[in-house]
Write a structure and sequence with these properties.
4 domains, 486 residues, six-stranded antiparallel sheet, Beta-Lactamase
Length: 486
């Protein structure tokens, strides 16, 4: 996966406009999604709890105001009440409220006589708004219903609608000592529909306001998280540039919290390159130190021919191959471990094609090359030259007239160099033997070569591979699969 692919996957693509960049795709396990999710949860919980508290406070305040209005109407009605000689209660003209005159207006009153401790609704006097209905007072016994005390309760009004009532027990004393006192319960009621309507309207307005405020807060948190984590995105992009070989160290300015991390990573990159460089130098020095005694042995064997000299020459040649082979592995392993190494593919293959055309020009070998100009190899140029050069040289050796080299992407983050020839090729059994782990040139069928083993080993160090299959040209096709940098 290339740097641009990783950036698009983590942070969202800029393609499609600035909105996509402003609102990137979030992953569940990312820091941004966790921070935003936590803020969203706490915002929702806080608004729900706050909304319930505010709704309860508003309901209590509205109900208190409603009860105060009922108490005021009840006080006015009691003040206007007078007892007739016939023992009935009349309301004088000063209690004249049009709300109690409209039928089923939602405002009602009634005066219920109390006889022998029981309320007689049949003899109750009602407001015109009740028409032919009555409202049942509260079920509080008379002995607990003290005079001058206003009781509030919920009851059922006309057509089963809920009403809120305020009632007070009034005792009218007799005009003479022999005449008994009379007790009446004065009731004023109001339809709860108005109360519930006000509460519902308040809850609706509060929900809309809280929803708008919540969306705004979550959006602000989203922007805050995105701006706050932007240095991390810059650090990731800078690291991807180093990984892809576009930079040798982390570049850019970072906040104080990330500066030590960037400096440590730059120090680690430089230290890794230094350690690998020293190891490769030591391996090279060791190889050169061994080649000098081998050259002396070769000279002595050539100067003294015989069976012993022949055996010595063969073993010296084996030792040289081992030295070259492991020196190449050490160099490739070091290059693979260093960050920031990259090589354009097309120039390397162009150079190899020109060299091989000269070497095999006397045989008339035609080498065709197809390679995207922006294709890159995540590794050193020498290693790519070694792998591709060995495979292309083998193809030219066994080709009759044509070698075809094609380069293309191969899955996510890799590319393939397909080298096909029109030579005799290899059978399936021979290809399996050539591909066995540890197979050397002198143990393989003709045409496999030490170069194939070296190419395979170096490719494995880069997490790549070498595959052999039949060519469309009739011969063998070697497919070199390596990490890409685009």
């Amino acid at each position: 996966m290339t740097a641009s692919d990783r950036k698009e996957r983590v942070f969202g693509s800029r393609r499609g406009g600035g909105m996509r960049f402003l609102w990137p795709r979030l992953q569940f396990n990312s820091l941004a999604s966790r921070l935003i999710a936590a803020a969203a949860v706490w915002t929702i919980v806080g608004f729900v709890v706050g909304g319930l508290i505010l709704s309860g406070v508003f309901r209590a305040a509205v109900q208190d105001e409603f009860d105060e209005r009922l108490a005021a109407d009840l006080g006015s009605m009691i003040a206007a009440a007078a007892l007739t000689p016939a023992g009935q209660v009349t309301l004088q003209g000063r209690f004249n409220d049009p709300r109690f005159e409209r039928i089923y207006s939602g405002s009602y009153w009634e005066i219920v006589p109390e006889i022998a401790g029981r309320l007689d609704l049949a003899q109750a006097r009602i407001s015109r708004s009740l028409f032919d209905r009555t409202i049942k007072p509260s079920a509080v016994p008379a002995k607990r219903h003290k005079a001058d005390a206003i009781l509030y309760a919920n009851s059922i009004g006309p057509y089963g609608r809920p009403v809120r009532i305020a009632e007070q027990r009034i005792i009218f004393p007799g005009e003479t000592a022999k005449e008994p006192s009379r007790t009446f319960v004065f009731v004023v009621a109001g339809d709860l529909g108005d109360l519930e309507g006000d509460i519902a309207q308040f809850n609706r307005m509060m929900f809309e306001a809280f929803a708008l405020l919540g969306v705004g807060l979550i959006g602000a948190v989203f922007i805050q998280v995105r701006v706050g984590l932007k240095p991390l995105r810059r650090l990731s992009i800078a690291l991807a540039r180093v990984r892809d070989g576009k930079a040798r160290r982390l570049e850019g300015r970072f906040p104080a919290e990330l500066t030590p991390l960037a400096e440590e990573m730059n120090g680690l990159i430089e230290h890794s390159a230094e350690v690998v460089g020293r190891a490769r130098t030591h391996a090279s020095n060791l190889a050169h130190a061994l080649k000098t005694p081998l050259s002396v042995l070769t000279s002595e064997a050539a100067a003294n021919p015989g069976p012993l000299a022949d055996a010595m020459m063969r073993q010296v040649e084996v030792m040289r191959r081992h030295i070259d082979h492991h020196l190449m592995r050490a160099r490739a392993a070091g290059a693979q471990a260093v960050l920031g190494v990259s090589t354009p593919v097309a120039p390397v293959l162009d150079d190899l094609s020109r060299v091989l055309r000269r070497i095999h020009g006397h045989r008339g070998i035609d080498i065709s090359l197809t390679c995207p100009p922006d294709m890159g190899f995540r590794g050193e140029r020498q290693d790519l030259e070694e792998m591709a050069g060995n495979l292309m040289d083998n193809a030219c050796k066994w080709a009759r007239s044509e070698v075809r080299v094609r380069v293309a992407m191969h899955g996510a983050g890799k590319f393939v160099i397909a080298i096909a020839d029109d030579g005799p090729g290899l059978t399936e059994e021979e290809r399996m033997r050539v591909g066995e782990r540890g197979e050397r040139l002198d143990e393989s069928v003709p045409g496999s070569g030490l170069g194939l083993a070296i190419a395979r080993d170096i490719a494995r160090l880069y997490s790549g591979s070498v595959e052999l299959q039949s060519s469309a040209l009739g011969g063998l096709e070697a497919r070199l699969i390596l990490p890409a940098m685009r």
